Amino acid sequence: MIPSIIYYSSAFAPWKETLNSLLQDTHYDYQWVPFTHLSEVPVASMTIVHESDCGEEDHPYMGARKALLLVKAWSFKRSLQAINSGANDCIAYDDISRIASWVVAEQSRSAWQAHSLDQPSSLQTVLDAIPVPIFYKDELHIYRGCNRYFCEFLGLPKERIVGHSVYDIAPKELADVYYEADQALLAAGGTQVYEASVKSANGDLMEIEFNKAVFYKANGDKGGQVGAMLNITERNRLMRQLDKASRTDPLTGVGNRREFNIAVSVALQKARQSLRATSLLTIDVDHFKSVNDVYGHSGGDKALKFLVNSMLDVLPDDGRVYRIGGEEFYVLLPNNDLAEARVIAEKIRQHIPEQTLSLRGGELAMTVSIGVIQLGTELQLEDAYKRVDRALYEAKATGRNRVCLAYYDD
Ligand SMILES: Nc1nc2c(ncn2[C@@H]2O[C@H](COP(=O)(O)OP(=O)(O)OP(=O)(O)O)[C@@H](O)[C@H]2O)c(=O)[nH]1
């Protein structure tokens, strides 16, 4: 017969021989192994630990090691406290006959458990068929089951997971985080959904959506929690890609009106905090229709891209260009007042005609008309857009290739 191993902590050593002689009357063989810290003891072992050898940091390890806690002064309250902390049972250290019956009962229970774990269940087959890592833990945070994908995700065989605490399968820093989250969910009950970055067994960093729920025993007590880990890395990547596309002008690569609306709101908020002024230029290409007429639509497209690059040449580092309409652009200057914005607008106006683009059919040089306004609060934005449009119209009406300023007092 294979001897059953009993792990024991040092303060119990003087009582070991007395217990051993009692156990000799049973039909079992026992092997004794001393330990100094519970984490050294293999999971699912029979463990006898004296309270003087056990601190609070050992509690997460107790449940997975079927720890019998021996106490100096036994009371029902003390026993309950120990069991709630993860101990399998709690007995007075000198109550040797009770300790002996615990050892025998535990040994026979383990044999039954091992037997039932070997039996495949239909629930396990269902879990294994779901292509998402799934696990369940009892109220002491011990893994009681998981599916094939959970094992693959962790890169561990099932025997290394089931019956183990999170401290047995994850580094302590991570285990502390999981343990705390599990405790919070168990205390609150119900369900919990959150996203976290997790490293899989092959080292890939994945974005995971954890869906967890507390389950209850037949008597209504909390039994533990189940968790499913949805890999949302690809979904999030696509969402980020879609979001970027929805804010970008595909022709020129600069932001569109949607991106501008977000940017102007952020700029005004920052400007209020830093007491800096923010200004806006609205820029429209002069006689752009004739560019299309002469060089064709694709020539016009090239001209628009070229124009954006020419504007960027002379913008301050924090200035941003947005394409608002066909050949109309906004330039947001988050740290410039009206006077500074006017200087920048003039630079753009002069710089653009100096740039020539070679197109099939000839060399193209363009001019632009520009309206300039210093922005007020977010509430005044609609009014500001109207006013700066009027300034642009004035630039067009008074000969084009001009900069006109907009004010609030007209
Ligand atoms: N190639 C090209 N042309 C565009 C695009 N979007 C708008 N347009 C053209 O831009 C031209 C705008 O013409 P108008 O609004 O009449 O203005 P304009 O000719 O620039 O004249 P002013 O603004 O009055 O100086 C039209 O011919 C549009 O077809 C685009 O994405 N690509």
Automatic annotation (TrEMBL):
UniProt name for this protein: diguanylate cyclase
InterPro entries with a match to the protein in the record: Diguanylate_Cyclase, GGDEF_dom, Nucleotide_cyclase, PAS, PAS-assoc_C, PAS-like_dom_sf, PAS_4, Rev_trsase/Diguanyl_cyclase
CDD domains documented for this protein: GGDEF, PAS
GO terms for biological process, alphabetical: cell adhesion involved in single-species biofilm formation; negative regulation of bacterial-type flagellum-dependent cell motility
Source species: Marinomonas communis
Family annotation (NCBIfam families): GGDEF, sensory_box
Domain of life: Bacteria
Lineage of the organism: Bacteria, Pseudomonadati, Pseudomonadota, Gammaproteobacteria, Oceanospirillales
Enzyme class, broadest EC rank: transferase
All residue ranges annotated as the PAC domain in the record: 192-244
GO molecular function, one term: diguanylate cyclase activity
Sequence ranges assigned to domain PAS in this UniProt record: 119-189
Required cofactor(s): Mg(2+)
Database matches in PROSITE patterns: GGDEF (PS50887), PAC (PS50113), PAS (PS50112)
Catalytic activity: 2 GTP = 3',3'-c-di-GMP + 2 diphosphate
Span of domain GGDEF: 276-408
GO cellular component, one term: plasma membrane
